Amino acid sequence: MKDSISIALSKGRIFEETAHLLARAGLRPLEDPEASRKLVIATNRSDVRLIIVRASDTPTYVQHGAADLGIAGHDVLHEHGGAGLYQPLDLGIATCRMIVAVRNGFDYEDAVRRGARLRVATKYVRTAREHFAQKGVHVDLIRLYGSMELAPITGLADAIVDLVSSGSTLKANDLVAVEDIMPVSARLIVNQAALKTRRASLQPMIDAFARAAGGGQ
Ligand code: PRT
Ligand code: MG
Question: What dotted CATH number matches 96-183?
Fold first, then answer.
């Protein structure tokens, strides 16, 4: 029997951009994950299935071998830490930037210069802690699970650490980006142990993603 391969993916943004990549790698889901309530989706290849997870859970599934491969944003991977994961490919999709943003009119530079203690709301607690520690800025981190943009508007925080792509969400909420933390894109991740023991079946799949991401016409 053929060794079966499972790939962890999240719905939403990652899936939209991954769908084309999957197709170019020769994989077609038999059901649309966005429409189906199924969390395990078969593909045109009887040995490959998709596991539909929450974006921030993708590295956890792959780390523990519940999925062999996965596609996750660099934001999520940095926050997870990457233990047990091999990250062979930047897929160049779902690109955005991790930034620090404040309310329009809040003098961030001045607050930093004065050594003020800043309240920073984010779901990227680890990334934020590292960033401000490197700058020597004292922060109280407030952990949120979404809609970070609300925090400065409501007075919950002075600043947020969040992702920005077009910039329209910041603009609509009268926020401005004051610092760039890192560029973000989606990566292919692979369970390290599985790659060692099952390289013969996993490597061709990694190669197929590499060709697909290379934009190969
Ligand atoms: O929704 P859920 O809580 O399950 O997870 P999620 O919100 O993390 O998933 P999803 O699908 O929203 O994002 C998955 C991945 O897409 C992220 O982990 C990133 O790697 C990537 N990505 C790329 C983004 C963005 N661009 C992005 N702009 N994820 C989120 N955003 C948000 C951002 O947080 C902000 O609220 O979009 C808003 C800003 O967009 P603009 O275009 O207005 O600037
Ligand atoms: Mg979301």
Answer: 3.40.190.10
